[in-house]
Amino acid sequence: MSLSATPVHRPRLLDELTGRILAQIRDEGLRPGDRLPSSRELASRFLVAVPTVREALRRLEATGAVELRHGSGVYVKADVARLIMVNPNRLALDPGAIIDLLEARELIEPHLAASAARNATDAQLAELTVAFSRTTEALAEDQRLHQANMGFHRTIGRLAGNRALAQVLESLIDLHDEEQRHILDLYGDRDHDHQVHGAILAAVTGRRPEKARRLMTDHLRDVRVVVTAALNPEGA
């Protein structure tokens, strides 16, 4: 896309430049994984110095909006319409944060599962089936299984038709990626977890919203109980 050169005013230069880059991502319809123009091209487009562009991109990387790949370029990492971005100042793994995360998901995801059963198109339901098949293929490898499981939950969120809630779920998953990995280790029963995911898939694709809601609620509650006991064996 050819854009005319537009200078960025000096006051609050970095803030304005950061906003311009985000606006470009939005206006050009760039999606996660798409490559941005080079720092030199962006500097020419916005009539600023290359180091200023690089500083703005580092800001965006810190929020999780873009990813800087050494020797490759800058890539969109998250949907710029996301309500919440990843906090770059991560603290150490916190057991309380793990329980808070599970409680938040327990409130949000049953509604999303029911909405997906009602609202998803046939093509979207086929997409969910593919997402579940990836979890089947990854059962023997924890790293792949974690990614596939989170992909399954993300897909249900997207299919629900509520962009705000889907974005909140995406952000919860991204914000607490380390906790999610720890949950997989603590929960332990990969086969049972997979069977429950299969039952949720069947309820959603069978367009049975209340069953999808109940299964998702039971699933997340079960995980929360097991993880809470593992984190606090004396109080279990």
**CATH homologous superfamily assignment of the largest domain:** GntR ligand-binding domain-like
Q: Which value, in Å, is the CA radius of gyration?
A: 21 Å
H/E series, N to C? Answer: HHHEEHHHHHHH
State the shape. Answer: elongated
Overall average pLDDT = 84
For the largest beta-sheet, the strand count, sense and barrel status come to: 2 strands, antiparallel
Q: Structural class of the secondary elements?
A: mainly alpha
User: What's the total number of strands?
Assistant: 2
| Fraction of residues in H or I helices | 55-70%
Number of helices: 10
**Span between termini:** 59 Å
Which fold name corresponds to the CATH topology of the largest domain?
A: Four Helix Bundle (Hemerythrin (Met), subunit A)
| Parts with pLDDT < 50 across at least 5 consecutive residues | none
Q: What is the highest CATH level, the class of the largest domain?
A: Mainly Alpha
Strand order of the largest sheet: 1-2
Do you know the CATH architecture of the largest domain? Up-down Bundle
Residue share in β-strands:
under 5%
Q: Kindly give the count of domains.
A: 2
